[in-house]
From TrEMBL:
One Pfam family linked to the record: PilN
Keyword annotations of the record: Membrane, Transmembrane, Transmembrane helix
Transmembrane region(s): 221-241
Keyword Membrane: yes
InterPro entries: ATPase_NBD, Extracell_DNA_Util/SecSys_Comp, PilN
DNA-binding found in the keyword field: no
Name by which UniProt lists this protein: PilN domain-containing protein
PANTHER family found in the cross-reference section: DNA UTILIZATION PROTEIN HOFN
Top-level division of the source organism's lineage: Bacteria
């Protein structure tokens, strides 16, 4: 059990460090703030995390208690008073504060804490506390078993591949008597820190085995509300999905009905086409005329594989124009001779060399081949006529 406890604590430290270094805390803080503005003030006050930190500091034999961010103390009493009197002085300062929201940090004097700035590899970010324990003998005159220490990462420029951290060390023989004194007074602290401006530095030198364990009914209520929100979200998503499925089924029924109508229209169109037949002159002429795809297919077969077309046009008068590139554009005229679809192919403009491809750019015009007009069938000679 004793061997499993440090490993589980190291795992929790790595998970906590990874969570703090990710963008998720900032996102959830922003999201929670935006959702909180939508609630009534009374609900917001009931659901908010009202944990308020108070700072306890010993100055010239007197205890001083103040709120984070405030310079003036809420209470001041002598350490020579009996425990009952000191607890009474503390209770007066706690008035108006929910016991669940009370957080107390013991501030140590600056001279009692040794602070060192280290540069560690970036790979050590997930286990700063463990690495600092290995470096304790080198960076301080104490061993890891003689001190309590904390590590925090600093936001300052360093060389690539390394990160700046600060190691804060306090001797056990100095902190243990102070914590024992507070326990005899019935005062439980939640963290041991250093003063920073009107607040605290943000580290915790309190030994893990002396950390206070508080029951937080409000957190349980918040978790229940969060679970209810997730359940409502799932129900809303299920309702939305059901509505979409119903709408899809209705649309499928409409499509089936429209499909029947479309089949009727297709039958009427086919009947109209059958009635029209092939009697239209324009339809016959169009059937005899070469299509654009046919012309392109003929050009593809006749042009070499080293040539390509960039532009092609065919107007209603049968005028063909195409532009492209070929290693030897002048030879294209010979290749187009004898085409059953293209007549009178000629270059328009001069042939120019393209420096980017090393080929010759050309533009040619031609005329779509016109089939010979059909001869009228000979009329039978009239009876009694002479040749």
């Amino acid at each position: 059990m004793s061997a499993a406890t440090p490993s589980s604590r190291a795992l929790l430290d790595r998970l906590r460090q990874g969570w703090r270094s990710s963008p998720l805390p900032g996102f959830f803080a922003w999201w929670g703030g935006e959702l909180g503005t939508l609630l009534p003030p009374r609900w917001r006050a009931a659901l908010a995390d009202g944990a308020g930190w108070h700072l306890l500091q010993q100055v010239d034999g007197d205890w001083r208690l103040r709120r984070v961010g405030q310079a003036e103390p809420l209470a001041r009493w002598s350490d020579e008073l009996d425990p009952v009197a000191q607890q009474a002085a503390l209770a007066v300062a706690w008035q108006g504060t929910d016991p669940e929201d009370r957080r107390l940090a013991l501030l140590l004097p600056a001279h009692a804490v040794l602070r060192r700035v280290l540069q560690l590899p970036v790979a050590a970010r997930g286990k700063l506390h463990q690495v600092a324990g290995y470096e304790m003998d080198r960076q301080t005159p104490f061993g890891a078993a003689q001190v309590y220490y904390a590590v925090r990462e600093l936001a300052r420029p360093v060389v690539a591949g390394r990160c700046a951290v600060e190691l804060l060390v306090v001797r056990r023989d100095m902190l243990d008597p102070l914590l024992a004194r507070l326990r005899t007074l019935g005062i439980t602290v939640d963290a041991v820190d250093l003063a920073h401006d009107a607040g605290r530095l943000g580290v915790d030198l309190l030994p893990p085995d002396q950390a206070s364990h508080r029951t937080r009914p409000r957190r349980r209520l918040n978790l229940m509300l969060a679970a209810a929100c997730v359940l409502l979200l799932l129900l809303a998503m299920g309702g939305w999905l059901h509505n979409r499925e119903s709408a899809l089924a209705q649309m499928q029924a409409q499509v089936e009905a429209m499909r029947g109508e479309a089949q009727q229209v297709a039958g009427l169109r086919k009947q109209l086409q059958d009635d029209a037949g092939a009697a239209g002159f324009l339809a016959q002429r169009k059937a005899r005329r070469a299509t654009v795809l046919g012309v392109l297919l003929d050009l593809t077969k006749r042009l070499p594989s080293s040539a390509w077309l960039e532009r092609f046009s065919l107007d209603d008068n049968g005028q063909i124009g195409f532009q492209g590139q070929s290693p030897q554009a002048a030879k294209l005229l010979d290749l187009l001779k004898g085409s059953p679809l293209i007549d009178n192919a000629n270059f328009q403009g001069s042939i120019q060399s393209d420096p980017s491809t090393g080929k010759e750019r050309f533009y040619m015009v031609a005329q779509l081949h016109k089939p010979a007009p059909e001869r009228a069938a000979p009329q039978p000679a009239a009876a009694g006529s002479t040749p």
